[in-house]
Specification:
The protein has 14 helices and twelve strands. The chain is of the alpha/beta class. The chain has two domains: 106 residues, Aspartate Aminotransferase, domain 1 (Alpha-Beta Complex), CATH 3.90.1150; 241 residues, Aspartate Aminotransferase, domain 2. Helix 2 runs antiparallel to helix 10 and helix 4 packs parallel to helix 10. The protein is globular and about 65 Å long. The two termini are 34 Å apart.
Protein backbone atom coordinates (compact mmCIF):
# COMPACT_ATOMS: atom_id res chain seq x y z
CA UNK A 1 0.00 0.00 0.00
CA UNK A 2 2.78 2.43 0.86
CA UNK A 3 4.37 1.82 -2.52
CA UNK A 4 1.20 2.95 -4.31
CA UNK A 5 1.08 6.18 -2.33
CA UNK A 6 4.76 7.04 -2.00
CA UNK A 7 5.07 8.62 -5.49
CA UNK A 8 2.42 11.21 -4.55
CA UNK A 9 3.59 13.46 -1.65
CA UNK A 10 0.32 15.41 -1.52
CA UNK A 11 -1.39 12.32 -0.08
CA UNK A 12 0.56 12.82 3.15
CA UNK A 13 -1.26 16.08 3.77
CA UNK A 14 -4.78 15.67 2.40
CA UNK A 15 -7.60 13.28 1.75
CA UNK A 16 -7.33 13.71 -2.01
CA UNK A 17 -10.61 12.76 -3.68
CA UNK A 18 -10.33 15.10 -6.63
CA UNK A 19 -8.70 13.26 -9.53
CA UNK A 20 -11.74 14.11 -11.68
CA UNK A 21 -10.57 17.75 -11.44
CA UNK A 22 -6.81 17.26 -11.52
CA UNK A 23 -4.72 14.15 -11.28
CA UNK A 24 -1.65 14.01 -9.08
CA UNK A 25 1.84 14.27 -10.54
CA UNK A 26 3.95 11.16 -9.79
CA UNK A 27 7.53 11.71 -8.69
CA UNK A 28 8.80 9.93 -11.81
CA UNK A 29 7.03 12.44 -14.04
CA UNK A 30 8.36 15.30 -11.92
CA UNK A 31 11.90 13.92 -12.21
CA UNK A 32 11.58 13.61 -15.99
CA UNK A 33 10.37 17.20 -16.27
CA UNK A 34 13.31 18.51 -14.27
CA UNK A 35 15.81 16.53 -16.32
CA UNK A 36 14.20 17.58 -19.60
CA UNK A 37 14.38 21.29 -18.82
CA UNK A 38 17.92 20.96 -17.54
CA UNK A 39 18.83 19.32 -20.87
CA UNK A 40 17.12 22.17 -22.70
CA UNK A 41 19.01 24.69 -20.59
CA UNK A 42 22.41 23.28 -21.49
CA UNK A 43 21.72 21.82 -24.96
CA UNK A 44 19.21 24.18 -26.62
CA UNK A 45 18.80 23.19 -30.28
CA UNK A 46 20.83 20.02 -29.77
CA UNK A 47 17.94 18.72 -27.67
CA UNK A 48 15.49 19.66 -30.42
CA UNK A 49 17.40 17.46 -32.84
CA UNK A 50 16.17 14.52 -30.77
CA UNK A 51 12.55 15.69 -30.87
CA UNK A 52 11.45 13.34 -33.63
CA UNK A 53 12.62 10.21 -31.86
CA UNK A 54 11.09 11.34 -28.58
CA UNK A 55 7.67 12.04 -30.09
CA UNK A 56 7.78 8.76 -31.98
CA UNK A 57 8.39 7.00 -28.67
CA UNK A 58 5.44 8.84 -27.10
CA UNK A 59 3.14 7.86 -29.98
CA UNK A 60 4.24 4.25 -29.68
CA UNK A 61 3.75 4.26 -25.91
CA UNK A 62 0.19 5.57 -26.29
CA UNK A 63 -0.57 3.04 -29.00
CA UNK A 64 0.81 0.18 -26.94
CA UNK A 65 -1.08 1.23 -23.80
CA UNK A 66 -4.47 1.45 -25.54
CA UNK A 67 -3.95 -1.09 -28.35
CA UNK A 68 -3.95 1.29 -31.31
CA UNK A 69 -1.34 1.26 -34.08
CA UNK A 70 1.01 4.26 -33.63
CA UNK A 71 0.27 5.51 -37.15
CA UNK A 72 -3.31 6.07 -35.91
CA UNK A 73 -2.30 8.07 -32.83
CA UNK A 74 -2.23 11.87 -32.92
CA UNK A 75 -0.59 13.93 -30.17
CA UNK A 76 -2.48 17.12 -29.32
CA UNK A 77 -2.13 19.62 -26.45
CA UNK A 78 -5.62 19.05 -25.04
CA UNK A 79 -9.01 17.51 -25.78
CA UNK A 80 -10.55 20.74 -27.09
CA UNK A 81 -7.84 21.31 -29.70
CA UNK A 82 -8.26 17.80 -31.04
CA UNK A 83 -12.06 17.81 -31.08
CA UNK A 84 -12.36 21.25 -32.68
CA UNK A 85 -9.87 20.24 -35.38
CA UNK A 86 -11.92 17.11 -36.00
CA UNK A 87 -15.18 19.08 -36.27
CA UNK A 88 -13.65 21.36 -38.89
CA UNK A 89 -13.19 18.23 -40.97
CA UNK A 90 -16.89 17.27 -40.83
CA UNK A 91 -19.45 18.56 -43.32
CA UNK A 92 -21.79 20.97 -41.53
CA UNK A 93 -24.87 19.27 -42.98
CA UNK A 94 -24.17 16.16 -40.88
CA UNK A 95 -26.54 15.42 -38.00
CA UNK A 96 -24.86 15.27 -34.58
CA UNK A 97 -26.17 13.51 -31.48
CA UNK A 98 -25.07 14.90 -28.11
CA UNK A 99 -25.92 14.18 -24.48
CA UNK A 100 -27.76 16.92 -22.58
CA UNK A 101 -25.42 18.44 -19.99
CA UNK A 102 -22.32 16.66 -21.28
CA UNK A 103 -18.91 18.30 -20.89
CA UNK A 104 -19.00 21.84 -22.36
CA UNK A 105 -15.91 21.25 -24.48
CA UNK A 106 -17.99 18.70 -26.39
CA UNK A 107 -21.38 20.34 -26.60
CA UNK A 108 -20.24 23.95 -27.02
CA UNK A 109 -17.80 23.01 -29.77
CA UNK A 110 -20.66 21.43 -31.74
CA UNK A 111 -23.43 23.94 -31.03
CA UNK A 112 -21.17 26.91 -31.86
CA UNK A 113 -21.08 25.60 -35.42
CA UNK A 114 -23.94 25.08 -37.87
CA UNK A 115 -24.51 21.37 -37.37
CA UNK A 116 -28.09 20.11 -36.99
CA UNK A 117 -28.14 18.67 -33.45
CA UNK A 118 -30.32 16.33 -31.43
CA UNK A 119 -29.91 15.45 -27.75
CA UNK A 120 -30.35 12.42 -25.50
CA UNK A 121 -30.97 12.84 -21.78
CA UNK A 122 -28.46 11.81 -19.12
CA UNK A 123 -30.31 9.84 -16.46
CA UNK A 124 -30.56 6.30 -15.09
CA UNK A 125 -31.82 5.18 -18.52
CA UNK A 126 -29.10 6.84 -20.57
CA UNK A 127 -28.49 3.82 -22.82
CA UNK A 128 -32.21 3.57 -23.64
CA UNK A 129 -32.30 7.31 -24.34
CA UNK A 130 -29.38 7.02 -26.75
CA UNK A 131 -30.93 4.06 -28.56
CA UNK A 132 -34.24 5.89 -28.95
CA UNK A 133 -32.42 8.93 -30.36
CA UNK A 134 -30.72 6.69 -32.93
CA UNK A 135 -34.05 5.11 -33.87
CA UNK A 136 -35.72 8.51 -34.25
CA UNK A 137 -33.07 9.80 -36.61
CA UNK A 138 -29.76 8.05 -37.08
CA UNK A 139 -27.01 10.64 -36.48
CA UNK A 140 -23.98 10.99 -38.70
CA UNK A 141 -21.85 11.78 -35.66
CA UNK A 142 -22.32 10.76 -32.04
CA UNK A 143 -20.05 12.75 -29.69
CA UNK A 144 -20.08 11.90 -25.99
CA UNK A 145 -18.11 11.36 -22.79
CA UNK A 146 -17.43 7.79 -21.74
CA UNK A 147 -17.79 9.00 -18.14
CA UNK A 148 -19.85 12.05 -17.24
CA UNK A 149 -17.84 14.74 -15.50
CA UNK A 150 -20.59 15.85 -13.07
CA UNK A 151 -22.53 12.69 -12.17
CA UNK A 152 -19.89 10.07 -12.94
CA UNK A 153 -22.40 8.06 -15.00
CA UNK A 154 -20.45 5.64 -17.13
CA UNK A 155 -21.34 4.21 -20.52
CA UNK A 156 -20.22 0.62 -20.96
CA UNK A 157 -17.84 -0.05 -23.80
CA UNK A 158 -19.90 -3.15 -24.66
CA UNK A 159 -23.08 -1.11 -25.08
CA UNK A 160 -21.30 1.29 -27.39
CA UNK A 161 -19.74 -1.54 -29.39
CA UNK A 162 -23.14 -3.19 -29.88
CA UNK A 163 -24.68 0.14 -30.88
CA UNK A 164 -21.89 0.76 -33.38
CA UNK A 165 -22.54 -2.64 -34.95
CA UNK A 166 -26.20 -1.66 -35.44
CA UNK A 167 -25.26 1.73 -36.91
CA UNK A 168 -21.89 1.27 -38.62
CA UNK A 169 -22.24 4.45 -40.70
CA UNK A 170 -22.38 6.73 -37.63
CA UNK A 171 -19.04 8.18 -36.53
CA UNK A 172 -18.60 7.48 -32.80
CA UNK A 173 -16.32 10.06 -31.16
CA UNK A 174 -15.69 9.55 -27.44
CA UNK A 175 -14.14 11.83 -24.83
CA UNK A 176 -12.04 9.54 -22.66
CA UNK A 177 -10.61 12.19 -20.33
CA UNK A 178 -12.61 10.98 -17.30
CA UNK A 179 -12.15 7.34 -18.29
CA UNK A 180 -8.70 6.55 -19.64
CA UNK A 181 -6.48 5.39 -16.81
CA UNK A 182 -9.28 3.88 -14.69
CA UNK A 183 -9.44 0.46 -16.35
CA UNK A 184 -7.93 -1.59 -19.14
CA UNK A 185 -9.10 -0.22 -22.49
CA UNK A 186 -8.59 -1.96 -25.81
CA UNK A 187 -9.31 0.68 -28.44
CA UNK A 188 -9.22 -1.58 -31.47
CA UNK A 189 -11.69 -3.97 -29.85
CA UNK A 190 -14.03 -1.19 -28.67
CA UNK A 191 -15.69 -0.46 -32.00
CA UNK A 192 -15.27 3.27 -31.45
CA UNK A 193 -14.06 5.41 -34.34
CA UNK A 194 -12.22 8.08 -32.35
CA UNK A 195 -11.22 8.50 -28.71
CA UNK A 196 -9.74 11.79 -27.51
CA UNK A 197 -8.38 12.20 -23.98
CA UNK A 198 -6.37 14.71 -21.99
CA UNK A 199 -3.70 13.18 -19.76
CA UNK A 200 -3.87 15.40 -16.68
CA UNK A 201 -6.59 13.52 -14.81
CA UNK A 202 -6.62 9.73 -14.38
CA UNK A 203 -3.38 9.20 -16.30
CA UNK A 204 -1.49 11.54 -13.93
CA UNK A 205 0.54 12.96 -16.80
CA UNK A 206 0.36 16.67 -15.98
CA UNK A 207 -1.09 19.41 -18.16
CA UNK A 208 -0.52 20.18 -21.83
CA UNK A 209 -0.81 16.69 -23.32
CA UNK A 210 -3.61 14.72 -24.92
CA UNK A 211 -3.97 12.09 -27.61
CA UNK A 212 -6.38 10.97 -30.31
CA UNK A 213 -6.92 7.33 -31.28
CA UNK A 214 -8.42 6.61 -34.72
CA UNK A 215 -9.68 3.42 -36.28
CA UNK A 216 -8.91 2.60 -39.91
CA UNK A 217 -12.20 4.04 -41.19
CA UNK A 218 -12.06 7.44 -39.49
CA UNK A 219 -9.77 9.01 -42.10
CA UNK A 220 -12.45 8.37 -44.75
CA UNK A 221 -15.06 10.37 -42.79
CA UNK A 222 -12.96 13.26 -41.46
CA UNK A 223 -11.16 15.80 -43.63
CA UNK A 224 -9.31 18.29 -41.38
CA UNK A 225 -8.13 21.48 -43.07
CA UNK A 226 -5.34 22.17 -40.58
CA UNK A 227 -1.78 21.99 -41.85
CA UNK A 228 1.72 23.14 -41.00
CA UNK A 229 5.37 22.25 -41.34
CA UNK A 230 5.14 19.69 -38.55
CA UNK A 231 2.27 17.96 -40.37
CA UNK A 232 4.80 15.91 -42.34
CA UNK A 233 7.64 15.62 -39.82
CA UNK A 234 8.31 12.28 -38.15
CA UNK A 235 8.31 8.54 -38.65
CA UNK A 236 4.53 8.22 -38.94
CA UNK A 237 3.95 11.39 -40.99
CA UNK A 238 6.20 10.68 -43.95
CA UNK A 239 4.08 12.18 -46.72
CA UNK A 240 2.16 15.38 -47.41
CA UNK A 241 -1.52 15.13 -46.56
CA UNK A 242 -0.90 12.49 -43.91
CA UNK A 243 -4.05 12.16 -41.78
CA UNK A 244 -2.62 12.34 -38.26
CA UNK A 245 -0.29 15.13 -39.40
CA UNK A 246 -3.34 17.35 -39.90
CA UNK A 247 -3.88 17.24 -36.14
CA UNK A 248 -0.25 18.17 -35.43
CA UNK A 249 0.49 21.28 -37.52
CA UNK A 250 2.99 23.06 -35.28
CA UNK A 251 5.82 22.48 -32.83
CA UNK A 252 5.16 19.71 -30.33
CA UNK A 253 5.98 20.19 -26.65
CA UNK A 254 8.50 17.49 -25.77
CA UNK A 255 8.26 18.36 -22.07
CA UNK A 256 4.53 17.67 -21.87
CA UNK A 257 4.35 14.78 -24.32
CA UNK A 258 7.39 13.24 -22.71
CA UNK A 259 5.52 13.49 -19.40
CA UNK A 260 2.68 11.51 -20.93
CA UNK A 261 5.04 8.72 -21.94
CA UNK A 262 6.59 8.53 -18.46
CA UNK A 263 3.13 8.52 -16.85
CA UNK A 264 1.92 5.66 -19.08
CA UNK A 265 5.04 3.63 -18.33
CA UNK A 266 4.52 4.32 -14.63
CA UNK A 267 0.93 3.02 -14.82
CA UNK A 268 2.19 -0.10 -16.58
CA UNK A 269 4.61 -0.65 -13.69
CA UNK A 270 1.75 -0.29 -11.19
CA UNK A 271 -0.31 -2.68 -13.34
CA UNK A 272 -3.58 -1.74 -14.98
CA UNK A 273 -5.18 -4.93 -13.65
CA UNK A 274 -4.50 -3.65 -10.13
CA UNK A 275 -5.65 -0.12 -11.00
CA UNK A 276 -8.93 -1.41 -12.46
CA UNK A 277 -9.59 -3.68 -9.49
CA UNK A 278 -9.00 -0.93 -6.94
CA UNK A 279 -11.02 1.70 -8.80
CA UNK A 280 -13.99 -0.67 -9.12
CA UNK A 281 -13.77 -1.65 -5.45
CA UNK A 282 -13.72 1.98 -4.35
CA UNK A 283 -16.67 2.73 -6.62
CA UNK A 284 -18.74 -0.06 -5.07
CA UNK A 285 -17.75 0.92 -1.52
CA UNK A 286 -18.56 4.61 -2.06
CA UNK A 287 -21.87 3.90 -3.76
CA UNK A 288 -22.99 1.62 -0.93
CA UNK A 289 -22.11 4.15 1.78
CA UNK A 290 -23.46 7.20 -0.05
CA UNK A 291 -26.76 5.36 -0.58
CA UNK A 292 -26.98 4.66 3.16
CA UNK A 293 -26.51 8.38 3.81
CA UNK A 294 -29.09 9.31 1.14
CA UNK A 295 -26.52 11.41 -0.69
CA UNK A 296 -27.00 10.11 -4.23
CA UNK A 297 -29.36 11.24 -6.96
CA UNK A 298 -31.84 8.65 -8.25
CA UNK A 299 -30.13 8.41 -11.64
CA UNK A 300 -26.91 7.20 -10.00
CA UNK A 301 -28.42 5.10 -7.22
CA UNK A 302 -30.45 3.00 -9.68
CA UNK A 303 -27.54 2.11 -11.99
CA UNK A 304 -25.65 -1.13 -11.49
CA UNK A 305 -22.32 -0.03 -12.97
CA UNK A 306 -20.80 3.32 -12.08
CA UNK A 307 -17.44 5.06 -12.30
CA UNK A 308 -15.49 6.19 -9.23
CA UNK A 309 -16.81 9.76 -9.64
CA UNK A 310 -19.72 10.67 -7.37
CA UNK A 311 -21.68 13.91 -7.05
CA UNK A 312 -23.25 13.86 -3.60
CA UNK A 313 -26.04 16.10 -2.36
CA UNK A 314 -24.44 19.02 -0.58
CA UNK A 315 -24.35 22.80 -0.44
CA UNK A 316 -21.53 25.29 0.01
CA UNK A 317 -21.69 24.88 3.79
CA UNK A 318 -20.99 21.15 3.49
CA UNK A 319 -18.24 21.81 0.95
CA UNK A 320 -16.48 24.24 3.29
CA UNK A 321 -16.82 21.73 6.13
CA UNK A 322 -15.17 19.03 4.03
CA UNK A 323 -12.35 21.36 3.06
CA UNK A 324 -11.83 22.27 6.73
CA UNK A 325 -11.23 18.55 7.32
CA UNK A 326 -8.56 18.46 4.58
CA UNK A 327 -10.88 16.70 2.12
CA UNK A 328 -9.94 17.86 -1.38
CA UNK A 329 -13.00 17.73 -3.64
CA UNK A 330 -14.94 19.99 -6.04
CA UNK A 331 -18.28 21.70 -6.33
CA UNK A 332 -19.93 20.64 -9.57
CA UNK A 333 -23.50 21.10 -10.71
CA UNK A 334 -25.74 21.30 -7.64
CA UNK A 335 -23.60 19.07 -5.44
CA UNK A 336 -20.12 18.10 -4.32
CA UNK A 337 -18.00 15.85 -6.50
CA UNK A 338 -15.74 13.22 -4.97
CA UNK A 339 -13.56 10.94 -7.10
CA UNK A 340 -11.39 8.00 -6.10
CA UNK A 341 -8.28 6.62 -7.80
CA UNK A 342 -6.13 3.56 -7.19
CA UNK A 343 -3.77 5.31 -4.75
CA UNK A 344 -6.60 6.10 -2.33
CA UNK A 345 -7.28 3.64 0.49
CA UNK A 346 -10.25 2.14 2.29
CA UNK A 347 -8.97 3.76 5.48
CA UNK A 348 -9.16 7.18 3.84
CA UNK A 349 -12.66 6.49 2.63
CA UNK A 350 -13.80 5.41 6.07
CA UNK A 351 -12.50 8.72 7.42
CA UNK A 352 -14.52 10.50 4.70
CA UNK A 353 -17.66 8.56 5.57
CA UNK A 354 -17.27 9.43 9.27
CA UNK A 355 -16.80 13.11 8.41
CA UNK A 356 -20.00 13.03 6.36
CA UNK A 357 -21.94 11.17 9.06
CA UNK A 358 -20.82 13.67 11.70
CA UNK A 359 -21.85 16.58 9.48
CA UNK A 360 -25.26 15.13 8.71
CA UNK A 361 -25.98 14.60 12.42
CA UNK A 362 -25.70 18.34 13.08
Amino acid sequence: MKNLRKPFPVLQQNLYFNTAASGLLPEKVFDFRQEHDLDFLVMASILKEKQGKMLTAVREAVGDFFNCAPNRVALVPNYSFGFNTLLEGIDKSKMVLLLEGDYPSINWAVTSRDFPVQFAAIDENIEKNIEEAFQKQQPDLFAFSLVQYISGIKLSVKFLKDLKQKYPDTLFVADGTQYCGTEIFDFDASGLDVVIASGYKWLNAGYGNAFMLFNNEAAHKIAPKTSGFNSLQGKYKAHEGNFIGKFEPGHQDTLNFGSLRVALNFLKEVGMELVEERVKNFSALAKKEFEKLNLLEKMVAEREEHSSIFNIKGDDKMFQYLRSKDVVCSQRGTGIRLSFHYFNTEEEMEILFKILRDYLKK
